[in-house]
Design goal:
alpha/beta, Rossmann fold, 2 domains, 40% helix
């Protein structure tokens, strides 16, 4: 199941497609709740195998689980609960996905980076960068209070703007470029900074080809997309729930169906 303030069918379509494809005896349903402690007790009492957790419950649910794993502890936010005989383990597969993608693309930990944003996804990205060994980075956020606090928490610097900096790795963890948003056609970084970067990482998942990604591709930069993040985090949830790892082709089909 999943718990969210505003439930959607994206997760249900992804997981249920793979359950049917792999002949697994599970079903996935989306819910919201006004009683989070009661909902978590229900997971235990009803033997529900797992729960995907979305806003606004990612932090509030921590006090009701039995064990918080590294991925969730690193950012003090949960997006996956696994129930094993009434014992609830908590994970954050956003963190797992970001860290895996950084390693998969063999991005050097000596590369300087900038992360634009100071929200929950920026926190997951910064924790993954820190735990992967990246040493030189800045957090770009106009809100000095939240931006500086986040940068300090993970051992990096804060700046309100990029100014003349030219990091080798640029990461967008804001809604800039998101379809349907007020900045859907905008770039989160100046074009000259994108031109100077070796790798561009945009966590915005819809569309997969954001203005930032399109520009980076035109410049022949390495690119990591938000579509890759959301697909990988959903896959890691699926593996935690079932113990089964689908093929890349099966995951691709499930991802396409989930967002159709």
């Amino acid at each position: 199941m999943s718990l969210a303030g505003r439930p959607s069918n994206i997760g249900t379509r992804f997981h249920n497609y793979l359950y049917e494809e792999l002949d697994l005896d599970y079903v996935y349903k989306a819910f919201t709740t006004s009683d989070l402690p009661g909902a978590i007790r229900g997971i235990r009492a009803l033997g529900i195998r797992g729960c995907g957790v979305s806003m606004p419950f990612k932090q509030a649910c921590i006090q009701y689980v039995d064990r918080v794993h590294e991925s969730a502890d690193a950012i003090q936010a949960v997006n996956t609960i696994v129930n094993t005989g009434g014992f609830l383990d908590a994970y954050n597969t956003d963190y797992i996905a970001v860290r895996a993608l950084l390693a998969e693309r063999a991005i050097s930990v000596s590369d300087s980076f900038a992360v634009h944003g100071s929200g929950g996804m920026a926190k997951a990205v910064l924790a993954a960068l820190r735990d992967s060994g990246f040493g030189s980075g800045i957090v770009i956020a106009r809100n000095e209070q939240t931006g500086e606090a986040l940068a300090t928490q993970y051992g990096y610097r804060w700046q309100a703007e990029l100014h003349g900096s030219q990091p080798q790795l640029l990461i967008n963890a804001t809604p800039v470029g998101m379809a349907g948003g007020p900045a859907a056609d905008d770039l989160p970084y100046p074009e000259h900074a994108v031109e100077a970067a070796a790798t561009v990482f945009d966590v915005v998942a819809v569309p997969a080809l954001t203005p930032l990604v399109r520009l980076a591709l035109s410049l022949k930069s390495k690119v990591i997309t938000g579509d890759e993040v959301i697909r990988l985090q959903a896959l890691e949830q699926f593996v935690l729930y079932t113990g089964v790892r689908p093929t890349d082709q099966q995951v691709q089909r499930a991802s396409e169906l989930s967002r159709a």
